[in-house]
Design goal:
Layout: E1 7-10, H1 12-20, H2 24-31, H3 35-43, H4 50-60, H5 64-69, E2 71-73, H6 86-111, H7 116-135, E3 140-145, H8 151-159, E4 175-180, E5 193-196, H9 213-219, E6 220-224, H10 227-233, H11 238-241, E7 249-254, E8 263-266, H12 276-288, E9 291-297, H13 306-316, E10 330-335, H14 343-359, H15 365-375, H16 382-385, H17 390-394, E11 397-399, H18 405-453, H19 456-505, H20 508-517, H21 524-567, H22 574-581, H23 592-596, H24 605-617, H25 624-635, H26 641-651, H27 661-675, H28 678-695, H29 700-718, H30 721-741
Parallel strand pairs: 3-8, 3-9, 4-7, 9-10, 10-11
Antiparallel strand pairs: 1-2, 4-8, 5-6, 5-7
């Protein structure tokens, strides 16, 4: 038995709130003392005598040995996570330099707004700069899990103070983002908290938009101090109850070193059945995050709905940068690990959780992820980047408790390594991007200078462009028609193939065979895991089919661009023009995401600059593997967490007895899927995916690109001798000074 003399304090408040789930008054009545006495004990828990702790054990019927486990050993008193942000400070300094450069370039654009040649070149330079700024953004860390696993508690422990509200009832009904205080908007003044309404689209809310008066007026609900979190985020808060503004996001600015290297996002817990809005807010937050802390309580680790939630996270995960090891941005954490007897038992719990999760994944889950990564990233190196595998997955399990530095040390060290590696990789990626982009930019200036020196050449080119306009417009129209035909072909093939796969798989005989071959028993846990395995396998079939036809569509698109550019009679790049026709501001590019992932290492700086901007607008790193793995996340699927749990509940009905229980249970599963119209939902998702592909570009913009090229040549020809010399002088100056911007 543990010796109480080895312990400094008994976490009485934690015991009352998170173990017993009692108010102070209820606990006082149970123990037989006044509420003031309980308040005094909780304010100074170190003063509690062993006799008092024994009394608490007797009255609560909670074993004394287990109570002693909740006491904090002297040698393991916790403190905040003392992260050294030096790598990020260097990166942030460089990012600030780029921001200053972007402002200077904007001033230059305004200065030369009447000179289209200079204005266009400066706009290109600004896009390069702004892309680099976006690429240097800090990772967003989402804290996910059921509503009672201690997400807010963990964040408070990392920060070293009670920034977020905590308790055993679901408190966080908002997406709360912790940002470093140095990034606080000037409008906030002495306050540190902003409450916002995303108006149904969390993508509207970005931390770098607060300087916009329109953004502030449209989305900011209220500003103040941390008390607002209780009022809006606590279900008992007055402003939560009368929340007419539908406030769903909060920013809180905190001075802590770890926030110099990341943003910490506290998301609403899953499983709050009385409020589906929480599920929606959590899902949108997950989609916009870069890394995930998935929390599950130790004494029920990876049980029940955890399996479904974590699979949902695995489907969403992608590389933050192209040089990161796979799965390094995933942390699966067993919280309140102090309640487990010893390190051996804790490690066993982690291992069993990994095995349980892996058992419900489709047979080719890891293989498929590796296929997507390797096929779309020429720089992928299995030795350097690792492979998606169970071996890599099981290393992502950790323990955490606010009461022990030792039990949380491996998580902390791994997380610090992760942040430092991202900083280095982001700087390397930005340097490579700027190097290739500036080379391309300077080449474009050289071409402009040569064109300006030879006044006859623009006239010849202009004549050719005008004469061939009707043919180019015909090419663009044919391209649009062929693209639509390919999209409809892909859509129909996806629907046909998935319907066949689904019907073949969801037969009683096939499900019976799976139950038999995988050794499932006639017990609740086994049947839940089987139903989850079935759902995951169907999702995998959906992704396989979508990916196959997306690759084929991308291949046909590339062949068409090669053909058009090869036979072009004028200097017009159909591929670049198509890139410029892609619509900004959408949340999904459909199959174009996989097509764009191939541009990560191409030398065409204008294409690359546009692609980087488009991908980063939906949270994808600069091409290559990061874009390819993010493609998997963008596919999504119609089976939400709530629906998956509903299906599981629909299958576990009644007691199945006799030798043919497998047949009866297989029939239950099929009926549950029919009741929820799962096949129809998947077909709707296929249609939406290809509708998104079609809606993500507008070939009318290609015609505008062609006409802009004609107008640019006209501008060159119409330049007076003085303007011509001035333009040449400024282009030469821009070429010489470009490196000063970076």
């Amino acid at each position: 038995m543990n010796d109480a003399s080895n312990y400094e304090i008994f976490k009485l408040k934690y015991f009352r709130e998170e173990i017993l789930h009692l108010t102070q008054k209820e606990f006082a009545d149970l123990i037989g003392v006044s509420q003031n006495t309980i308040s005094r004990w909780e304010a100074n828990p170190g003063s509690l005598e062993l006799s008092t702790i024994i009394l608490i054990s007797q009255k609560t019927k909670y074993p004394l040995n287990d109570i002693l486990k909740l006491m904090t050993p002297k040698e393991t008193l916790t403190k905040d996570w003392d992260y050294d942000p030096k790598n990020w400070e260097l990166l942030n300094e460089y990012k600030n330099k780029l921001k200053i450069s972007s402002i200077k370039i904007s001033q230059e654009i305004e200065k030369f707004k009447s000179n289209k040649i200079l204005k266009d070149r400066l706009n290109s330079l600004k896009k390069i700069t702004d892309n680099a700024i976006r690429m240097l953004s800090k990772p967003k860390i989402a804290f996910l899990g059921n509503s009672d696993v201690g997400k807010s508690t963990m964040i408070n422990t990392i920060i070293g103070r009670d920034v977020l509200p905590t308790g055993w009832t679901p408190l966080t009904s908002m997406q709360i983002r912790l940002i470093h205080s140095s990034e606080k908007p000037n409008k906030l003044g002495d306050n540190d908290t902003i409450i916002l309404s995303s108006k149904g689209n969390i993508n509207n809310i970005q931390s770098d938009r607060f300087n916009s008066s329109k953004f502030w007026d449209d989305f900011v609900v209220e500003t103040g101090n941390k008390q607002l979190l209780q009022e809006y985020g606590d279900r008992k808060g007055k402003k939560y109850i009368r929340n007419k503004e539908k406030a769903d996001v909060a920013f809180i600015y905190v001075d802590h070193p770890i926030l110099r290297g990341c943003e910490l996002w506290d998301l609403p817990g899953f499983g709050t059945e009385d409020n589906e809005q929480d599920e929606f807010i959590a899902e949108q937050g997950k989609q916009n995050a870069d890394a995930y802390m998935y929390l599950s309580i130790s004494n029920g680790f990876m049980r029940g709905t955890d399996i479904n939630y974590l699979k949902n996270v695995l489907d969403s995960i992608s590389q933050i940068t192209n040089d990161m090891k796979v799965l390094s941005n995933l942390f699966i954490v067993a919280t309140q690990s102090h309640v487990i007897e010893d390190d051996i038992s804790r490690n066993e719990i982690l291992a069993e959780g990994a095995i349980r999760m892996n058992s419900v994944l489709p047979t080719n889950f890891w293989t498929f992820k590796n296929k997507v990564l390797s096929e779309n990233n020429s720089n992928y190196d299995p030795i350097k980047h690792g492979e998606f595998s169970y071996e890599a997955f099981e290393k992502r399990f950790f323990t955490f408790t606010k009461d022990s530095i030792i039990q949380s040390s491996r998580l902390k060290e791994d997380f610090f390594t992760f942040l430092n590696q991202i900083a280095k990789n982001k700087m390397n990626e930005v340097n490579y991007y700027l190097k290739t982009s500036t080379m391309g930019f300077m080449n474009s200036i050289d071409k402009s200078l040569q064109s300006l020196k030879n006044t006859k050449k623009p006239q010849i080119e202009l004549k050719q462009l005008k004469e061939n306009r009707v043919y180019v417009l015909s090419d663009i129209e044919n391209l649009a028609n062929k693209s639509k035909i390919e999209i409809e072909k892909a859509r129909n093939m996806c629907i046909k193939e998935f319907t066949n796969e689904y019907n073949n798989y969801m037969s009683i005989s096939n499900l019976e065979n799976i139950l038999e071959s995988k050794g499932y028993k006639n017990r609740k846990n086994d049947k839940e895991e089987f139903t989850t395995f079935v759902g995951n396998t169907i999702q995998q079939k959906f992704e396989n089919i979508i990916y196959k036809h997306s690759k084929e569509y991308a291949k046909q698109l590339e062949l068409e661009f090669d053909r058009l550019n090869k036979q072009a009679k004028v200097s017009f790049d159909y591929r670049l023009s198509f890139v410029n026709s892609i619509v900004t501001g959408v949340t999904s590019f459909g199959a174009l995401t996989i097509w764009m992932s191939t541009f990560g290492n191409l030398g065409g700086y204008i294409v690359a600059t546009k692609i980087v901007g488009l991908l980063s607008s939906i949270g994808i790193s600069v091409g290559g593997g990061a874009a390819a793995t993010a493609f998997l996340a963008s596919i999504g699927g119609p089976i939400t967490i709530v629906l998956a749990i509903s299906i599981i509940a629909g299958t576990i009905v009644g007691l199945l007895t006799g030798r043919n229980w497998k047949n009866k249970f297989a029939e239950n599963v099929i009926n549950a899927y029919k009741k929820e119209n799962v096949l129809e939902k998947y077909l709707e998702a296929i249609n939406k995916y290809w509708d998104d592909t079609l809606a993500s570009y507008n070939t009318n913009n290609m015609i505008k690109e062609y006409d802009n090229q004609i107008n640019e040549l006209k501008n060159k020809i119409d330049l007076s001798e003085t303007e011509l010399e001035k333009t040449q002088s400024h282009l030469n100056k821009l070429k010489l000074e470009i490196l000063n911007y970076f």
